[in-house]
Amino acid sequence: MPIADNDKNLRLAVLIDADNAPRDCLQGIMEEVAIYGTPNLKKAYGDWSTRNLAGWKQALLDNSVTPMQQFAYTKGKNSTDSAMIIDAMDILYSGNTDGFVLVSSDSDFTGLARRLREAGQFVIGIGEQKTPSPLIAACNKFIYIEVIRERAAKVAAKASQPARKKNDQPKKNDQPKKAEQPKKNDQPKKAAAEPETKPAAGEERQIPDSIVWLIADSILDLSGAGDEDYVSLGAVGQLIQKKRPDFDTRSYGFSKLSGMVKAISRFEVVEREDKSDPRSKLVYIRDLEM
Questions:
Q1: How many domains does the chain have?
Q2: Alpha carbon separation from 286 to 110, 143, 214 (Å, rounded)
Q3: Which of 107, 100, 209, 202 is nearest to 146 (CA)?
Q4: Exposure of 232 in the CB half-sphere (CA atoms within 13 A)
Q5: Best label site of 15, 36, 117, 201, fewest CB within 10 Å?
Q6: 219 and 101 in one domain?
Q7: Segments of 133-259 assigned E as strands
Q8: How many other C-beta atoms lie within 10 A of the C-beta of residue 142?
Q9: 125 and 56 in one domain?
Q10: In this structure, what CATH number is given to the domain that contains residue 223?
Q11: Where are the beta strands (DSSP E) in 95-221?
């Protein structure tokens, strides 16, 4: 079931493999899940009697995630995977979900992701960059933990900046008289404020040629209907996601696909009025080298 750009109401079951997921960014993971839908179920699987999972307690409580106990019946064997897979199938057959979020970097869940997609579920994978490619390919969408960490770090940095209070502004009576105001020529030039308006460091990253070709190839696949080879940017984004489930513009320093393609001189981006809604704009893209 392909996901629409404006579909935010998917009923999602979030299943976390605690043995292969970091607890320090659980909140960031749940915030990411909220972009795609509502997590009706949130469960984390592991042997909670072991010392290495003891640090999960507060993170689970803060994010209202239910810990699912699974003892290791044989030393050195991980029984968490089988418990999570069995539970996922029970949830699937209940018919109360539209999609699943599998939080793990373990390739053992590749078959589960494939089976859930066959059942019409939208499958989101979340794992580290070390995640094997078969699991990535089995998901409709795959999100890297490193991207979530970077976003959380930026949010924390902004939150730590002191906000200027209203009372800190100089009062009207405290303003210097007009005669005491510095002359117009003495005012600092606008260029002095440029450091605050420069693009973020991530936006200066070079976009790999492989990504440029991925965008160009997707435009080519969708073109051919005339109209000077312009195609909908939304359609291009959906096709790229199908080709590369792990494609994420944030990995290259851009919050949206529109910002990325505008930074590539090869592509031309235009906005057109939406005939069905004059208040909104539709974005189209063309490959100038096609």
A1: 2
A2: 36, 27, 14
A3: 202
A4: 9
A5: 201
A6: no
A7: 141-144, 231-232
A8: 24
A9: yes
A10: 3.30.420.610
A11: 99-103, 122-127, 141-144
pTM to 2 decimal places: 0.72
Considering the domain architecture, whether residues 239 and 113 belong to the same structural domain is answered as no
Which are the contacts of 63, defined by CB distance < 8 A and separation ≥ 6?
26, 27, 30, 42
- Token output for 96: 């109360």
CA 143 – CA 65 distance, rounded (Å): 20
Can you give the pLDDT at residue 279? Answer: 75
- Treating both helix axes as pointing N-terminal to C-terminal, what angle do 233-243 and 209-222 enclose, rounded to 10 degrees? 120
Could you tell me the sign of the dihedral formed by the alpha carbons of 241, 246, 250, 251, in that order?
negative
Whether 182 is in a domain gets the answer: no
CA dist 242 and 218 (Å) reads 10
Burial class (CB in 10 A: 0-12, 13-18, 19+), 44: buried
**Token output for 153:** 């770090």
Q: Is 274 helix (H, G, I), strand (E, B) or coil?
A: strand
Q: Which domain holds residue 144?
A: 10-150
Residues 139 and 236 grouped into a single domain? no
pLDDT digits (tens, 9 = 90+) for 44-83: 999 888 888 888 999 999 999 999 988 766 554 567 888 9
Q: Indicate whether 112 pLDDT > 90.
A: yes
